[in-house]
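Deviations from the work plan: none for this task. Representative record:
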Amino acid sequence: MLSLWLNVITGGVLIGLVYGLVALGLTIIFGVMRVVNFAHGEMVVFGIYIGYWTVRIWDVPIVLAAVIAAVVMFVFGYLLETLVVKRFVNRPHHYQFIVFIGLSLLFSGVLLMSFGPDPRPTASQLSFQTVSVGPLTLDWARIQAAATAGLLIAALGAYLKYSAFGRSLRGAANNRLGGLVVGLNIPRVYAVTFGIGAACAGVAGALISPLFDAQPYLAVDFTLLAFVTVIVGGLGSFGGALLGGLTIGVAEAIAALMFTPSMKTALPYALLIIILIFRPRGFFGAKDI
Amino acid sequence: MSNAYVISLLTIVLLFTFMGQSWNLMLGIGGQLSIGHALFVGIGAYAVAILNIKYGLTPWIGLLLGAVIAGFVGAVLAWLSFRFEVRGIYFALLTIAAAEFARIMFGGWNYVGGMQGLFYQAPSATMDLGMLRGDARFYYFVALALAAIGVAGTELISRSYWGYVWRAMRDDDEAARALGVRTFRHKVLVVSISAATAAVGGGVLGLVQGAIFPDSIMGMAISVDVLIGPVVGGLGTAFGPLVGSMAAIPLHHAMGALGDSLGLPGLNSVAYGAVLILVVWFLPDGIWPAIVRLYGAIQLPARGRISQLRKVEE
């Protein structure tokens, strides 16, 4: 019994790291640009399809698929920002939300048109390999996804903290006008930020492609999951995204053990409602928006 | 295109005009963004369906009860949120979370039919206003009446004391408070009224569709259907939701049919998304104000163009 619980909770922590990466993408975009990317789930699903196709066609290891997803989604995010999102950055929130709802519908429609509604399993050997550590039996796909996600989160954190670009990004986030005055190239910072956010979502998608069958309808769930995660941790906070991811991962895993499957999917929303009401800015939330 | 198809499509357009008005009241006039209106629509639909299908009661009671429950749920949601300073996009996220939570709960609740949903008896040929039963043409007139009430109601509220108060708090919460408006109370009120009217629309929508399922009546798609009319047509205006629904919903259906015949599911979704983006991009006030400006004959009442609002949270 104890080992069952240990297994479940460890599994939750592992998937929670990937959720953290998804949430990080959303939080970086929000922290810098103050827009809420309602199409974030579609970007995760793009990542899942990239994972599916690269493994299908070239039979590459999932980590390499994640690298490909990172590059593709960064370019996608960069272009999307320069072509569309840029025009709505300084508009009232409800306009931004509506534009992103539009983008989300557009992307999920394109996914449906391109790949149809049927789920596509990434038949990777990884899905069936397990590793035993003491009382724990873990599947290799989850370990690999979590390790890659954890490394990426750490690397991104270090990059944003110590690099010149990280400084300008934080500058743009703190004070846009001040950044412009000291000569920051704000439009470029925004485009790169959006690219990084999309890449986080894409990589997370590729990493979990052995666990979730690629399917267009998954997008809404991932968008809402990312919102829940980010709000539990605090919108705009780096550490909050990670903590939120772990919380949701573990909570979902425990719920899967204790409740019926339908109740399991309701749990994150219940958590979000409670957190929003009693601690609206989350664990580490920014002061105001 | 058969006659029956046109009538059923127009019925849907008019019903979403009415529900769009309720959403319009909340954001366009009250300044509170909801992306979870499906919650209230669903509550209304379930109230009517349960009372009618399980207990044989007239839908009139269901509509009333649904409106009361939804109004109460809206008031509680708004009270909790605004009490604890959950505003702007956080409030919008809360509405989505509440709607999704309710959808999943209704799906797992056997008393209300769970995922298998609830079915009305086949529509009768004889019209019965007392039981709100009739053929497609009957429901068309019901929807027409509702849409007319919605447009007139928005216009009346806009010109009423409450309308001025709500627009004042939409435009500048602090200034309104400084003038002695109890904005907290009014925000709860506007959310509650909007929720109650959305539930009435939902109750009739369920009757028209003949069956309700949690995923179809409480899903995100309903929330998008509700907001697309006012956004496309013109936020905060009385005719906007009508014009917007007329433009967007038939397009959605036509694209859905085209997509099915081409074997391209998702074409309707692409069309919806493109319409939303293009409207906000090129006609941020919506179609109706653009028409009014183009022809210049009708003077819009002084109500401030919502696209020119300063960012609410700054």
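Chain B touches chain A through 52 residues (CB under 8 Å).
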